[in-house]
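Methods — Computational structure assignment.
A single polypeptide chain was analysed. Its primary sequence is given first, followed by the predicted tertiary structure written as structure tokens.
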Amino acid sequence: MKRFIEGDDREQGVLFPDHLEDFVGEDNPVRAVDAFVDVLDLADIGFSDAAATGRPGYHPAVLLKIYVYGYLNRIHSSRRLELETGRNVEMMWLTGRLAPDFKTIADFRRDNSKAIRKVCSQFVMLCRQVGLLNGDGVAIDGSKFKAVNNRDKNFTPAKVKRRMADIEASIERYLSKLDAADRNEPALPPAKVARLQERIIKLKEQMEELKAIEIKVQSAPDAQVLLTDPDARSMRHRGGGIVGYNVQTAVDIEHHLIVAHEVTSSGSDQGQLVKMANQARLAIGGEEITVVADRGYYGGEQLLECANNGIITYVPKPLTSSGTKRGFFIKQDFIYDAKNDVYICPAGQKLTKGAHRSDRQSDINLYRHLSACFDCHLKSRCTTEKLRRIRRWEQEDVLDDIERRLEEKPDAMQIRRSTVEHPFGTLKAWMGYTHFLTQTRKKVAAEMSLHVLAYNFKRVLKIIGIAPLIAALKA
């Protein structure tokens, strides 16, 4: 067969050897990785220095370059990174043909968790220096990521009781088979009897293990024990459950860069708003910051603290009232008159402030009308009690301000969704929709920082290009 492109003969020698530089173009992203790591003060960041004695180790810059390049190219495993150092020309160029073994690569990520997280923060600072973070605002959200922990290795009080009941039922079933074999002729074969007895012994051993685990579960603060990854937690996820971590991110609204992130063991977003907003403000470097979040972050104390710290929030109120389902008026149907400090009910009556609640919540006021409710024609749609009472927090003006801002900016939740959901989808796609490779929150935080760094790196390369990024790094 003729007229096809032919390759070089494997046995053909060359007069002049090839240079690695010839295989890496000027517009290759690996050059940006090399420039970024080279400008970092690794000792100041916290990477360990070489030992004074013994065999010299690999420079932290070499191992960090391997990881940054690997995560940029969706290569997360230390064993796969070891393979790439020996066959990938770009990796050879990046490391100077050095090829650390997988254990050295894995230990570097394990032993430098805090420093790796600082590297991620350093890149965010670079984004701010090149003008990609102008302080327009951030969107905050959390997403569940699976841990290296099988659900069968997660124990709660209900799971322990259920498994104990299953084991007891299995033991009873095997014992009944042995009893039936003794009563009826012919008896079971000796080999089968031995297998049944062996299964009973193993089940009793499992029962003893479960009893020991039950004690640990009862003493655990959140009544959970995980055998593989003790820091992971069982969480609700898309109508089911997942054993993993809740990763919080704050994403820049303009360029969709992740300016702050945090790996948490909490299955809820409650209580995360202030912490993430402050981290985002510190990363952007502004006095004030605008934050958009979903209903999961709504909380009076959190929103009040944000307002006092110069954080402008857009957080919708959760619809938790059961009155709507029953056809009753809800609190939103009562109009608050701030000037006169009264509520106007749907019937047009004024509900005035009464005594404080009797359950020791001194910052909650009750509003009611002492006589109008008795013969009101709308009472059947309002309450089954004698009087309809409206509870108002003394700092509820802050919440009212948030509602007014949301009414003035009706597309705020759409902006939030299009901003913060995109990075999560991208990160999970890069991970193959699987789980973290490391265990414990400290190591998972380092792994997540590498994912975030790779995501931000790709975003910046897409926005400004390779050459301008390298020029900014060298400036």
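Note: The chain has a mean pLDDT of 88.
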